[in-house]
């Protein structure tokens, strides 16, 4: 199965360098994306540009792909399901959730000179980074790319309610499935409250499992792809 892999904020396609080969070994075709504005040198890229890149990857697949979004890019995976509800086998969200219509995409940290730089690891102290050693954090931080303000402050929009029929899987690293179910029940994640086919995978990791447990993450994604392929 084609597996479109979308890294979260500040990451380019190389974030999946340890996951993609393990997926290939399991017979899948990983397609890591370098999003506009996050590794292609386009400092003026917009959220719409990133959405278009994900949709183009879906359209280029020979069969219905599984679309995987990490962290804030979980929202991109869900928007792709909205734009192409008939062309995606499953939407997988790792450590993140879709935003609501009319919300800003990822306006989480201060913007400087038209971009939102990585704020350092301090805001992520605790479960997010407990499984990352100092060398890994230094290596990852050295590759972090400031996200254009026109991406982080872009406005989320949806156009097709058929997205609610899309199989959606929440891979839960630094939080538990029970936490997400509680948030959904409380109405804190409206898009997932309306989704009709939501399932959960508990992953013993922090917020960046592609760096800390790439083989385990690949195993999880491979099993989900097999399930998606069976249901296609």
Observed structural traits:
232 residues, alpha/beta, Rossmann fold, two-stranded antiparallel sheet, 9 helices, 8 strands
| CA-based shape | globular
Number of helices: 9
What would you report as the Rg, rounded to the nearest angstrom?
16 Å
Give the oligomer, counting copies of the same chain as homo and different chains as hetero: single chain
By helix and strand content, what is the structural category?
alpha/beta
Report the CATH architecture: 3-Layer(aba) Sandwich
**What is the helix content?**
25-40%
Strand percentage: 5-15%
* Major sheet strand order: 2-1-3-4-7-8
User: Runs with pLDDT <50, length 5+?
Assistant: none
CATH superfamily: Alpha/Beta hydrolase fold, catalytic domain
Mind telling me the CATH class?
Answer: Alpha Beta
Rounded mean pLDDT score = 96
Protein name: Alpha/beta hydrolase
Keywords: Hydrolase
GO molecular function, one term: hydrolase activity
InterPro entries: AB_hydrolase_1 (IPR000073), AB_hydrolase_fold (IPR029058)
What would your notes on this structure say?
The structure is a single chain. By secondary structure, this protein is of the alpha/beta class. The protein has a single domain, classed as Rossmann fold. It has 9 helices and 8 strands. The strands form 2 sheets. Strands 2-1-3-4-7-8 form a 6-stranded parallel beta sheet, with helices on both faces. The radius of gyration is 16 Å and the shape is globular. Residues 3-219 form the AB hydrolase-1 domain. Keywords: Hydrolase. GO terms for molecular function: hydrolase activity. This is Alpha/beta hydrolase.
